[in-house]
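Page header: ASSEMBLY MODEL / two components / 434 residues total.
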Amino acid sequence: MIDTRGLSCPTPVVMVQKAIKDGAPAKLEVLADAKVAVENVTRFAHSQGYQVEVTADGPDFKLTLTK
Amino acid sequence: MKENHWLRDHWLILLTGVVVGTAALILTAAGNPKNMGFCIACFERDIAGALGLHSAAKVQYIRPEIIGIVLGSLLAAVAAKEFRGRAGSSPACRFVLGLFVMIGALVFLGCPLRMVIRLGGGDLTAVAGLLGFVAGILVGIVFLKKGFSLGRAYSVRKGEGLMLPGVMVILLVLLVAAPQLLKFSEEGPGSMRAFWLVSLIAGLVVGALAQRSRLCMAGGLRDVFLLKDYTLLTGFLAIWVTVTVGNLIMGKYNFSAVSQPVAHSQYLWSFLGMALAGWGSILLGGCPLRQLILAGEGNGDSGVTVLGMIVGAAVAHNFGLAGNPDSVVDGIYKVGGIGTHGMVAVVLGFVVLLVISLLHLPGKEEA
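Prediction written out in full:
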């Protein structure tokens, strides 16, 4: 699980970018607390061929990236 | 089909860019300085002057555009249920970064937004600023790739998130009800202003749209280089195209490197000033406009950054760091730019940014 909560733009995407670059996992879970981070990670994940499912996790968001 | 997808994903940022560009043209026609319909750095500098934080008599006014942007963002964020009090991500560093971003922008004579507006007016001197801005962003990206982060922000009480919007409300009340308490320019750029309500409404609209579309001048270029994502750059380009077309239609397009309004042709320092602003904006996570938007969304760290920028403007004018525009004196064209103090400040800014960048790489926190 990549916890991006509280991190300012574009660090959440950079963390996901690094995780994908390091191992291209078939599934990745990302925790975010801002809509903008959800949008940015989703856009980047789509560009890398991942499907993204977003679910509410209290005040936060859980993104599940699958290939 | 592909075009439809592109439009579906980009219509809001495109619309925002067109509206910002149009607002800049309208505000200029309504009285704001030429090629300065919207400039976050210049307008925060004017606010600093109006509050007596500096005494440069030509640049003092409470700019309602800034108030409108913050409050427009607040309203949009509340409507979208995105308002959330957050703070705690290296606020002191952000204050200092905001200060040097402002100094860099005032050396160039404009924030990244005004840089685009200047380019849209045909101002070729702004090309040096654009190149510097790109260079600064590339330096910032090097540190982002190495893991640079100012650390996490945490949820805080709404009152913290409402602090900068509250300050803006107070400024608006003072502007409308007690202007005699403030310092307003009687000549120079600070004296050139659209009617306050027009400026406020323009700010509100731009603030709301920029909050929804996430418009960011630094982010537009950063995402292209870092992620090959052109979304935010679309807004950047839409502003440029809109302002260019508008100026061409109104006969105000002046494709030249001389005699441009509130601009100087000291290219090296325009380049370095915007490099400082670009690098600082990347470290902060957004350009000066984006900091106002985030502050409206409840981000106390961005509120501190905005205050740092206002103090930076005061420092810039109290110590003669800001650029002077080119001018014509007795029929002779006089190149403006910055003096030794400004040059020292820019170099100091690079040193400070380098130290902050290095201190916030992974592994340094525990050391």
